[in-house]
Amino acid sequence: MNVRIHQSWKNEFENEFEKEYFKDLIGYVKHEYSKHKCFPPGPEIFAAFDHSTFQETKVVILGQDPYHGVNQANGLCFSVRDGIPIPPSLINIFKEIESDLNKPVPPTGNLERWASQGVLLLNATLTVRAHQAGSHQKKGWETFTDQVIRTISEKKENVVFLLWGGYAKKKAKFIDASKHLILTSGHPSPLSANRGYWFGNKHFSTANNYLKQNGRKEIDW
User: Fold this and answer.
1) Catalytic amino acids?
2) Strand, coil or helix: what is 185?
């Protein structure tokens, strides 16, 4: 499987890639992709680790699963390909940015422009079978992505972690809050957002203020 992943991430996780669970996981994923329609396309499974370097990473947004509809997933959490209708959760993310930073809702839901600025758009599970949400959960991906969070926490400083919804909030236990900023809120999905758990969290301005205070370039959300 010809995946794309920046060398800086390979350097950090080469030992992880050699562990038995990871080899079993890759075997499972290869089998799934050979027998079923799965997303994202093979080369984009590790796309979150290819747009920016480990060293440049300054914000982490955690999702749960890739989109499981045709042509949606591009390997970045909450992101869809150009030309694909913007999913409801992402619309609510853009609405919060609009009210928080006075930036208009963009015409595309492709978040590669965030990723290239050092925003790690990480799903806990990196693959999914078409039209079957959660179908690749508990196969080993979570072990790997939990380790990614731990490594960023241990080896870096002043990273902003955006944890939205109950699932993402559970990952806070892997993060050292004494040297990073952890921002939590409800999930941007309509169910949560419309009950008052998302809008008004001001995570995007708060993240930028923190980055600026620590001498880092703000994100152009």
Assistant:
1) 65
2) strand
Q: How far is 62 from 83, CA to CA, in rounded Å?
A: 24
How far is it, in rounded angstroms, from Cα 109 to Cα 21? 33
Q: Which residue has tokens 């203020």?
A: 209
Residue 74 tokens, joined:
């591009």
Give per-residue pLDDT as tens, 177-218: 999 999 999 999 998 888 889 999 999 999 999 999 999 999
Of 161, 165, 221, nearest to 188 by C-alpha is: 165
129-179 confidence digits (pLDDT tens): 999 999 999 999 999 999 999 999 999 999 999 999 999 999 999 999 999
Assess whether the previous peptide bond of 40 is cis (omega < 30° from 0): yes
Backbone angles phi, psi at 162, to 5 degrees: -105, 110
CA distance 191 to 198: 10
Supply angle C-alpha 134, 135, 141, rounded to 5.
Answer: 80
**Euclidean distance between CA atoms 99 and 176, whole angstroms:** 30
Which whole-number Å values give the CA distances from 196 to 94, 189, 192, in the listed order?
16, 11, 7
Q: What is the pTM of this model?
A: 0.96
SS (H, E, C) 24-91: HHHHHHHHHHHHCCEECCHHHCCHHHCCCCCCCCCEEEEECCCCCCCCCCCCCCCCCCCCCCCCHHHH
